Amino acid sequence: MTHPKFSHSFEVVADFPKKLEPLRKLASNYRWTWHFETRELFRAVERNLWDLSEHNPAKLLLQLSPERARKLVQDEVFLSKMNSCAKELQDYLEEETWFDKTYPNQGNNTTIAYFCAEFGISEGLPIYSGGLGVLAGDHLKAASDLGIPLVGVGLLYNKGYFRQRLNHDGWQQEVYPQYDYFDFPLELMRSENDEPIRVEVEFPDRTVTCQIWKALVGRISLYLLDSNVLENEVRDQSITDNLYGGDQEMRIRQEMILGIGGMKALKVLGITPTVCHMNEGHAAFLSLERILQFMESEGCSFRVARQVVVAGNVFTTHTIVPAGFDVFNIDLLERYLKKSVEAVGLPFDTFVKLGRFDPENEGENFNMAVLAMENATYINGVAKLHAKVTREMFSARWAEFSEDEVPVEAITNGIHTPTWTSNAMTNLLNEYLGRNWRREAGDPDVWKNVANIPDEELWSIIENERGHLVRFVRRRLQRDLESRNAVRPDFNLVGSILDPRILTIGFARRFATYKRATLLLNDKERLKSILFHPERPVQIVISGKSHPRDDGGKTLIQELVRFINNDGARTRMVFLEDYDMEVARRLTQGVDLWLNNPRRPMEASGTSGMKVIANGGLNCSILDGWWDEAYDPSLGFAIGDASDTSDTVQQDWHDSRSLYGVLEQEIAPKFYHRVDNGIPSSWIAMIKRSMTELGPYFSTGRMVRDYTQKFYMPSSERFIKLKENKQIAAQEALAWRDRIRTAWSGVKIVTVTDDSHGKTQEGSDFTIYVSVLLGSLSPSEVTVEALMGRVGPNRELFDSTPLAMKFKKTEGRESYYELPFHCEDSGHRGYTIRIVPHHLLVSVKHELPIIAWEHAAK
Length: 858
Description:
By secondary structure, the chain is of the alpha/beta class. It has four domains: about 80 residues, no CATH class; about 300 residues, Glycogen Phosphorylase B (Rossmann fold, 3-Layer(aba) Sandwich), CATH 3.40.50; about 250 residues, Glycogen Phosphorylase B (Rossmann fold, 3-Layer(aba) Sandwich); about 110 residues, Immunoglobulin-like. Helix content is about 40%, strand content about 20%.
């Protein structure tokens, strides 16, 4: 029989020595995940227990025996380290931050709510699946370091993602453990009368109740919703069981809880965000709830509320193809969202149009990314190439603008460097970069001091970390063999797997087919010749999970495991089961080279390779994602070139040959070229250049500063301006939009002339003269622009740049504009004139994408 459910619950608090109380505070804040001194302190409490707890400090302290606690109380060295860590945490929480200095007195006026379906804070909080979640966790950590007034909002998955096990034939099996989050560094949010705080989300024919948990991530509060409460029906208690589990109906339930429930949770906690950041489209329903809350609190119409709210929304997309977005069929959407849509007074058919590429295509399903775009003022991709591909994908929605002007910016991802840098390397960088480098990891000036690190010291750290990785891999394999009751000969083999002295490559990621995990297997004999080269051998450590419903990804894992086990590569290649943040740290800290070979341009960004930079590792990758903008021959290695082809078979063949070639002719020879004291000087020179040039840029320190300066603060200021004084500015903006639409038919370009005479010298100047009709509009309500660019064979303008013309005068019905232009580049250049609306509080491209073009251009 199954266990009965409890009807009443209470917590029993263990007696804990007063002298060890600082451990509780240290355990309650996930700052330990990037403060290695605190991590080492928890390890010193009891090493085996720390590992068995899967690096969960709250569980570690719960399971600490009274005998061990008494010993720690008497250990003066331990107590000194504990008190030092506690003081560092307190100092960290109270010190002046980058945000305080850059935006004085803005902290009380600004609150950013960062919504994501997963957060990778630590392997000890298993509510993430991969890159998106780890990026979100790193975002919170950097926001904490910088002092950004930000809160996180997500879901607390009672069974996490899944734990990966491979059967004897290498086929992935999924295991779903049940977690008890009372044993985690989480606080269940309670009211003044100590009752758990609840929020309700309306579903068809029923209401689902969720409780709220808080995780402290440095200065940042992360709020997580959980539907596993007794008030719910059994089917609804399991909504937040699994990350990305279930069918489309389960997905829409989860996304309603994340977006609608998340906004309700902030409201009940007394948090009113000025900016909501949707990290992927999963949280896009928040826009609907945010508008409703604004209407109720301000007593205004839907149009006014949306004008204000959209100004305070930001959307980041990580998806590279339309098929990657969450979509729902209209019947399912209507069944679940009709009540919420009716609550704001919006016809359901009108709402559906906000989620379609083509609003008038009634056969198109509802796209969450489109909904997010329609309800955000700032949109970005996560690398320069990804933003370009996204602009191409969504160009039809901004048909009046050139592809380059589609309002999708690029803020390239980064990693939270202190989280991913090994203890030994951190100490080395402390010595040569200064102890504050961890708080200033995005500052290029800090990293210039890498040049002062002696080659011998740097190489010693790299060699030792490679050895640590080999020992970790062997222990992990031993554990996996024991769990399968392996026979004795298998244990004997473990000691021969990998060699701590040879070139070690890491390859770990989600096993989606486009990432081409088996590209190396295209020519197995050639691969083996590389692995077992008599003078320049190579070894590869592989890890990663496939989505439970992705048999294609599972097949890739199986092919790799079969090659390792059956084709004689067992001592040189390893597949590590159950990829998580701990495995990721071990790999990125211990490998010499990180390999990435997706099919270009399918990788939105990819952050795993960034994690090796500060650890003294180099990258070898397809020119895709972040590596497309980072690559330089002095910093790492490229597979193939920047060309794309629709023939995937040909592309795979070409890229595999390029990969074999770069391993044989560039990477291995450079790594093994030892001249001075057995040190690969040219290899170390590349490492130092990589650390100096790539380290600060590809960090979340730089990334979150970019979000703050480009998106968060302008968005917050616009939201506040539109909201104040009973939304007078918002109402004026709406009236202006209506007036522009009515008057736009009278806007025309009359004459365009210039004094270049059709040819001019490089370095010379000429002036463009334009007269326009504005009808009932004034010159302050429009911008007249010359779109200047390179002329293609069919009169197209490439690499075009809009240049605002200067208003000179109005005579009669015509207004006159001029633009002096300096000719910097030779070649066939051209321009066309256009008129666009202009208002300081309206994002024209998002809200009013209309243009009057010079007739010859269109």
